[in-house]
């Protein structure tokens, strides 16, 4: 029963996490990249313009790819990197709890990004169509013996 529900559970997780990232990326995009970069600079984030573009691109495109279940390991690492950067540069001094400006929320987003990114995405993910159609590891071809 659990095996049958796993793809649905992973789909729900991917869609919800993807929507959260798209919403945050959209907020930064519509607020203006320059304004986002200025905000990043005021928080001491290095290369603020480059960081703003990387963050918005990661959140918008990464969120959409999460929903589709495509390129999940790469997307998971990119989104976790953005969240860990936010944790280090912005939220670490606020303590743990997000109500105090802490890192609780971004840490959960980073962990969820890694967990879903390396989950395989389930049968309802685009990655499952081309990475491993049956969901089982493929046996490696034995190497030819040296003569």
Automatic annotation (TrEMBL):
InterPro entries named in the record: DoxX (IPR032808), DoxX-like_oxidoreductase (IPR051907)
Subcellular location: Cell membrane
Pfam families found in the cross-reference section: DoxX
UniProt superkingdom: Bacteria
Membrane-protein topology: Multi-pass membrane protein
Keywords linked to the UniProt accession: Cell membrane, Membrane, Transmembrane, Transmembrane helix
TM ranges: 7-27, 39-57, 64-90, 102-126
Listed PANTHER family: INNER MEMBRANE PROTEIN YPHA-RELATED (PTHR33452:SF1), OXIDOREDUCTASE CATD-RELATED (PTHR33452)
Record-stated family: Belongs to the DoxX family.
Official protein name in the record: DoxX family protein
Species the sequence originates in: Glycomyces endophyticus
Lineage summary: Bacteria, Bacillati, Actinomycetota, Actinomycetes, Glycomycetales
């Amino acid at each position: 029963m659990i095996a049958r529900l796993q793809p649905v559970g992973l789909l729900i997780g991917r869609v919800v996490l993807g929507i959260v990232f798209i919403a945050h990326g959209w907020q930064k995009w519509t607020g203006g990249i320059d304004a986002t970069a200025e905000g990043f600079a005021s928080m001491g984030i290095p290369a603020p313009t480059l960081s703003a573009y990387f963050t918005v691109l990661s959140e918008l495109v990464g969120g959409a790819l999460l929903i589709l279940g495509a390129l999940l390991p790469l997307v998971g690492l990119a989104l976790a990197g953005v969240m860990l950067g936010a944790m280090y540069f912005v939220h670490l001094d606020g303590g743990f709890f997000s109500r105090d400006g802490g890192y609780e929320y971004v840490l959960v987003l980073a962990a969820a990004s890694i967990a879903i990114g390396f989950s395989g995405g389930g049968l309802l993910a685009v990655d499952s169509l081309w990475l491993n159609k049956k969901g089982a590891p493929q046996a490696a071809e034995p190497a030819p013996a040296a003569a």
